[in-house]
Design goal:
The structure is a single chain. The protein is an all-alpha fold and 228 residues long. The chain has one domain (2-227): Mitochondrial carrier fold, CATH 1.50.40. The chain is 79% helix and 0% strand. It is built from 10 helices and no strands. It has helices at 2-8, 16-44, 57-71, 77-81, 88-117, 123-144, 146-156, 161-166, 169-185, 189-227. The longest helix is centred in the C-terminal third of the chain and has 39 residues, at 189-227. It is elongated. The two termini are 37 Å apart. It is found in: Mitochondrion inner membrane. It comes from Solanum bulbocastanum. Keywords: Membrane, Mitochondrion, Mitochondrion inner membrane, Repeat, Transmembrane, Transmembrane helix, Transport.
Length: 228
Amino acid sequence: MEEYTLRNIPIATPYVPLVAGSLARSIACITCYPVELARTRMQAFKDTKNGVKPPGVWKTLVGVVSPVNSVNRYHNSMQTYRLLWTGLGAQLARDVPFSAICWSTLEPVRRKLLGMVGDEASATTVFCANFSAGFVAGILAASATCPLDVARTRRQIENDPERALRMTTRQTLVEIWRDGGFKGFFAGVGPRVARAGPSVGIVVSFYEVVKYCLSHRHMHRQREGADL
């Protein structure tokens, strides 16, 4: 995308990380959402009775759709399995802006830091530049999207299947405001930020360091081949 914009629309090049990050996160969210739903419900509704084994991912997902089937066995199956994507809108509303903010912040900060090093870049400097940029980008993105994270969690832990299908992200945000005001929008912001900053920093820095090492190893082999 960057090569295309550089050739044809140079003014759009700075926005490539934003578009690429948003598109990648959208595909990942839609594909993996049922597992994310199971994770949230397993954390929220964990059975603490002695001798009772908490349900796994499969049983949790079956439990999401079974109440509808038990109420009306002729219920439209597509409508039933829509429950496995309960809160997807809230998830996309959270994760797409998260990726957009994260990558549009991370790329310029990373390039600025690496530009200060110039041709003297090493695995250490690549790691430090990418971790710092990822840490800052993760904190900003997590803070900005915290209200949408609260809305997504509320929708995922809704026990009434009929209400879960009717709920919208906008309605959920209104409920959060009504119940907790401005503070309600940022419930759990501390742990979310504490997780997102290091998480983004670690993922991006290790990815770039491995890429850097493999690239230099390949170049070294090419030079040895040329010398022979």
